[in-house]
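re: ur question from yesterday

yeah so i grabbed the chain u mentioned. its 360 aa long if i counted rite. heres the sequnce exactly as i have it in my notes:
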Amino acid sequence: MRTVRVDLGDRTYQIHVGPGARRGVQNGVDQLDDVRQLVVIADKTVAGLHLKRLITDLRPEPLVLTFQPGEKSKSLPTVERLCDQLAEAGIERNAVIIAFGGGVAGDLAGFVAATWLRGVRFIQVPTTLLAAVDASVGGKTGVNLARGKNLVGAFHQPQTVIIDTEFLETLSARDYAAGLAESVKHAVIRDSVFLDWHEENVERIVARDADALSDLIARNCEIKAAVVAQDEREAGLRAILNHGHTIGHALEHLLSYELRHGECVALGMLVENELACARNWLGRAEAERIRALLARLGLPATLPRPLQAEEICTACRVDKKVRVGAVNFILMPEVGMPRRVADVTDADIASALAVIEPAS
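ran it thru and got these structure tokens back, copy pasting raw so excuse formatting
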């Protein structure tokens, strides 16, 4: 079992990673004071696959609330419905909510926990690789609006994060690969040695080798925990975690969530690396190296259908990364040395988008 500490003073918590880690959920509950009620929030697919393994012997017996799987459930109407169910069940402030599932479940249940009775405690139990390496760590919660992704949210740190790698066995190859995009992103922005490790261990990673998977998840959590500990609320440094996301979020929204988040992040990284190359920052060889690695890990290199550059630029401007009217990008002068810039023009974006255009 690997353990990673997220050092946030009186909000410090630990991440536990490994096969069978779910058995530590009860221990996580027992370490909290005055827990009178438990609530598990999960999508219906995850509940059908894994709920029994999670709640066996869990005490107090939890209230289980479910929602339809998919990004469209990450919405204010879903939050309202879940909160109505909490009210009907008489859930009080000494309750603990367990977010059980992928990134949607973590963001949605975390936002409910942040806002129910002005905040109750919660535990993250991710069941996807994407959530394990990224979404479950750091305390970002939120939901989407029709105008864009994650526009309504709150920072609300979990009490602990339990990552049982056995839950990842049921992921499709596509969903598994989507999580690897965030892992490559973390390596690119923070750890060139970890990027080398990805290249050297592609076969083990794709095969879901148990030791390689635990090492991969733990290192991702260490990278993100170190950034979050220095900048919990994204006042500065934490913005580097958005590499690939400015374009990626725009693509997600415009494609109506046809692609997975990680797939859009991978495409966003390709475009943003092209922007860096155009500035004579990132070397062409390094950009191609990252592109090749993403492809070897099963991630897309082109859009599924054409999009207009103008609509992508417009979508980028409706994003929480906009500051003083300028769209912020995290570009790479070199691996491990990210830089936030706010002077990327629509013409720059239009030119860089050629790297992901589908074949005619």
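noticed a couple things. Residues 174-356 form a domain with the Dehydroquinate synthase-like, alpha domain fold (CATH 1.20.1090.10). also The longest helix spans residues 210-230.
anyway ttyl
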